[in-house]
Sequence to fold (594 residues):
Amino acid sequence: MWAMRRRSFLQISSALPGLAAAACGSPERRPNVLWILAEDFSPDLGCYGNELVRTPNIDRLAAEGVRYTQCICTAPVCSAARSALMTGMFQTSIGAHNHRSYRDRPRDLPAGVETVTDCFRRAGYFTANCRTPAPGLRVGGKTDFNYRVENPFDGSDWGERPEGAPFYAQVNFPETHRKFRRFEEAPVNPDDVPLPAFYPDHPVVREDIALYLDTAQHLDAKVGKVIQRLKDEGLYDQTIIFFFGDHGQALHRGKQWLYEQGILIPLIVRIPEQFQPPGYEPGTVDGQLLQHIDITATSLHLVGETPPELMQGRVFMGPDAEPEPDYAFSARDRCDETVDRIRCVRDRRWKLIRNFLPDRPYAQRNHYKDTSYPALQVMRQLHASGQLTGAATQWMAPTRPEYELYDLQSDPDEVNNLADSPEHAERLARLQARLAGWVEEANDHGRELEDPLPAEYDLRTMVAGWFTNNGLLSKSERALRLEWTGQGRRPQEVVVPWVETGGQLRLELELRSDAPQDLKVRWGNPAQMGGLGESDLALAADTNWQTVAVDFDCEGWLAWFSIRFPAGASVAYCRRATLRRRGQSGVLQEWQFA
Ligand SMILES: [Ca+2]
Fold:
């Protein structure tokens, strides 16, 4: 079904007003194409009906463009999603499905697979990954592909293009990525946040979601600056703008998962009047089923280029638009150190998820999520104390069903699994067959699990909820053994997610080390997940246990604390850690490793 199209350039060019001129050698009349990507972002915008955020710039873009309500990302995590987007191909088809699988085993794209920038270059376009997309604005220019691409872009700004050349550019905004930052001008009130059924109602959960929504407001302000720059340079009416998310929100059941929070993304396409294809109506809303790789194919089509034969993305507008498919697909594989394989098929109403590793729990440990998602820690603690109730408890089950079938219309939170319902048996069978068909047709490279995992994950270890991404934690000698290798790119730190009312706190540690260690204790709250403060802690070389304590003040809620070790190889042991409230008897929490 993927190879059914590809018509000639002339057919297209004759139907698009600006492009006939391009074919006759007037390249200056070809539209520029700008992708504005928001990291980890669901459709949480005013124009998508979210009344808690003020996003006037993106809302205006939607009012002047077409807003799509059913765009599904084929992967719910950065590198896999971006690998797919860049090629217009399912990440599973090109072996780019495991997150960050490229870094220690570089590989090329399969023969014949091209990047979108190569396609634009061939068409005479200058390609740019913008670093300063507006005056005073700097962005990192994320690429994050799971394959080797030499010079994926020509430059770092469209302003570098040769005179007369059109441009294809990306602006990759990190605002909506963790760590979240409060929007001080008009912060979202946590009390106003609607809670999906899969969350417990807890102040930290509410604050975390509110902070995420705040990032949409930061994002909007910056998108506004880019649009202003285009206007100032006289390019606004020469440039087709695609605004979208690389995948869904970095919240519980979002990023890394195939629920709507992970795969449904905003998509707005604004086309200047002179380049609008037939049927394009500014200010409208379009509910057709899309996959984010369709953006790739359609971008090429809109400038009169025929997408490569292998490209699986669909041209969804323009004179050569292909019909809306019945289904969209998405896939999740290894994310960081956490091995999983999940696939889903979705139409406009129904979604089937297949868990290929049902014996593993949903709540598999993951350093990134466990140490940066405070709501996840809230759920773990409530569950441990028997206080987690309702649909939120599903997440803590020791195993998963193989299939999950949801009615997105009546159950938008996807908490009522209908897979075992006799009433839906026929639907289940139809979707199962379609999903299995896709796995075959798309030549899903995830059928064999990656083995071994990339070496960088050898140093991500966890014992009893203590995490490091740069050392070897193990239970040994009636203590927690912390071995630091001096290798790796990150600070040697053990992070302990723990949610507690803040205030004046004291951490007591029973430690032992054969060498002196200049330690730092650090801590953070939900609004400052990067760290609120740090305190020095000197540990003498001693074969006996030493009890050391750090007093610290934590504003709001404590979300985590950590112990950071000096660079270089060393071994230390921890027998006990105790968290107390200063000036009060009793213990808030004790970690006993003896
Ligand atoms: Ca991302």
In short: The radius of gyration is 25 Å. Residues 9-328 form a domain with the Alkaline Phosphatase, subunit A fold (CATH 3.40.720.10).
